[in-house]
Amino acid sequence: MKRKLILAILTLTAGSILAIWWFFIRDDAPPPPDIQSAVQIATAAQNTSATTAVPTSTVASTVPESTVPTTSLAQTTTTQLEQEESQETPDELELDEIGAITGTWMVDTTIGSFGIDESTSSFVGFRIKEVLGRGIGEVTAVGRTPELDGSIEFEKGFLSRTEIVADLTKLRTDRSMRDSKVQSALNTSTHPQAVFVLEESIPITDNGSIESTASGFLTVNGLTNPVKADFQAQLVGSIMTVVGTFEVNLSDYEVEAPSAPVVVSVEDTAIVEFQLFFVEMTSEDSTSEASVPTTTLDPLTIKNVEQLNEYIAEAASFNQADSDWLLPENLDPSAGGAPGFTRYVFRQTSAGVVPTLVEGPLGPQFRCQEERLPCSYLELKELSESNSPIPEEMGLSPEELASLVSELDSLREFLDEHADVNKACENGYLSDRIQTPNMGSHFIKADIFGNGFDPGEPEIILYALADGTLPNGAIGQCRDGVWDGEPMVLVGSAFILPPSQGDTSHPKGFTGDLDNWHVHLNLCRGRSNGTDTFVPKEECENSGGNFHETIGWMMHAWAHPEHDNELGVFSMWNPTIAPFGDSDTVEERFLVQGENFPEGAKQSLVSNFAFEETIEVEAGQSVYFNNSDSVPHTISAGTPDEPELEEFDSGILNPGDNFQIDTSKPGSYPLFCILHPDMTGLLIVN
Predict the structure, then answer these.
(1) Is residue 465 a contact partner of residue 475, using CB atoms and an 8 Å limit?
(2) Cβ atoms of residues 575 and 581 within 8 Å
């Protein structure tokens, strides 16, 4: 009994394995398209359209009216064989007939019917080898979509243009269990279309056919690469029939092969295959908007794919600095940037262009200085106490926000104790005698520089003239612990970590990532005349100034309620300090321009991996872009899906590089960065 039971279990197991193999794993992939089968489909489609509306017999219903038999089945069979033989050896066309194949021909999706196992319609698809485990071996996965749009153009005996757009969201495979994984791997939710464009013209042979290997470009998952396509074409009556294949590497399109428990591996190389039927576009088609093929890439811009790839390769060789406050090597910058708003600032001096400021960590930074966000001290405090939702872009958890507010509260307590400028003098803080616009005068306590970061003891306290004016020269100073100048009011504080501490990485100061520390470079402090300048060392010392190659990491913190800063608690500038103004004008006030800045141009900064959302100018007013970011960018016309590099294209702009666009033609011009496609903007020329 036991032996019978074991045999029964083995039999059932074997049967289950056989069933699984038969229904799910066996390699019965549909055959690839071939020109002979496609020609027969095209012939049948035209024959069917010419049949009698009311057939006189079952046999006659599938035969052209001109060959409807009147007697026997044998006669019908003979006629069909004669037709097939004539298809295999098409008659040669006269030269004038070849030249007559002209104009635009559209993909006809009404011919035949679509099915994965046997398709008589137009389709585009793929096939790829999978290696399965458990001793199963190799199988071929096939996927196809019949949702197509596109056209071919003939001119003087040549196929001069081909463009096919496939809807990948309608892609189906020969195993439905694969479909969702294939859709996910191809990222069709973001890039739903694949586009093929032919690069070269191909001659038509004497019999109206084409058999050739031609170069083109394929776009999948938003990436475009060159391909070599082997294809055949044959004119069958009024239908141009095209089949072909070409190889692609999944990795070239950043496509990761779908996985499953039974799948051991999937080849990186896939075969793209297509079967297409075209009919000549009529005058009615040409006036019908619905019949015009849509596309995501213009053929003209496709020709720039090699140029785009060169940009990417060039950017990949960019040598970033090893630390947050150092600059990349081999820069040749122009003046530009805006302190407090850009990663880098470069200024024009008598000795050439020099870097004068580096801000924040390498890569994207979050500057919490937009009025729509709760970025000031009092706004952060209210946000924490109210338990309101924290804006996602601020990157703070409720616990982190509470910790940050607690640190700022301790700073506020310190500032309250030093509201009187004489208290600062008494405790050893010394004035730099310079009141910087929208910032104040720095009172510095040098003997605590080495203590490290402490939110309750800033190295710098900021004061400003109590009458709200800007001084014309040097202000007073602390003498024997007493202030000897004009009345001052407390406005804020700043922290400093000098180079002597030997840490060139971005400081970890306050809780969270809202604090962007900065480094001043090549700064000339003129205590005697009350101004900061950026001049060469010799020139600085000759004028009585103190030259600093660098001062170290610095950051402002505005935790005094009477000067709560709508630009953010850690902003470099504070519009509540003279000269007074709204926050919208602060950035424009501190834009840096060099001697080569075009007169009357609109300056636009590229910073924090972003363009200005909208740049508006008058016709004839040029736009001058500064790349003040930490990495290379491009200013390229169009969008990632539809680049228009013929309009304008900067090429690679390293940090410190500028690019000018002359605007003579009114209109709206989208722009993007080839290296970072999420960076987009709009140029409006009035």
Answers:
(1) yes
(2) yes
Q: Is the dihedral of CA 318, 322, 325, 329 positive or negative?
A: negative
- What distance in Å separates the CA atoms of residue 659 and residue 679, rounded to the nearest whole number? 16
CATH of domain 314-365+596-686: 2.60.40.420
Q: Where are the alpha helices (DSSP H) in 327-469?
A: 377-386, 398-417, 421-426
pLDDT at 14: 39
Distance CA 321, CA 342 (A): 17
Alpha-carbon distance 672 to 681, whole Å? 6
Q: 35-50+90-303 with 314-365+596-686: one CATH topology?
A: no
> Among candidates 368, 326, 345, 359, which has minimal Cα distance to 554?
359
Which residues, other chains included, contact 180 with Cβ-Cβ below 8 Å and sequence gap of 6+? none
Q: Is 59 or 626 the better-scoring residue by pLDDT?
A: 626
What's the length of the chain?
686
For the stretch 549-558, pLDDT in tens is 888 899 999 9
pLDDT digit string, tens, across residues 630-678: 889 999 998 888 888 888 999 999 999 999 998 888 889 999 998 888 8
Q: Which CATH class is domain 35-50+90-303?
A: mainly beta
Q: Where are the domains of the chain?
A: 35-50+90-303, 314-365+596-686, 376-588
Opening angle at CA 263, ends 260 and 266, nearest 5: 105
pTM of model > 0.70: no
- pLDDT category at 306 given cuts 50, 70, 90 is low
pLDDT 10s digits, 226-248: 999 998 999 998 999 999 999 99
Question: What pLDDT does residue 68 have?
Answer: 31
Pairing type for strands 223-236 and 209-220 reads antiparallel
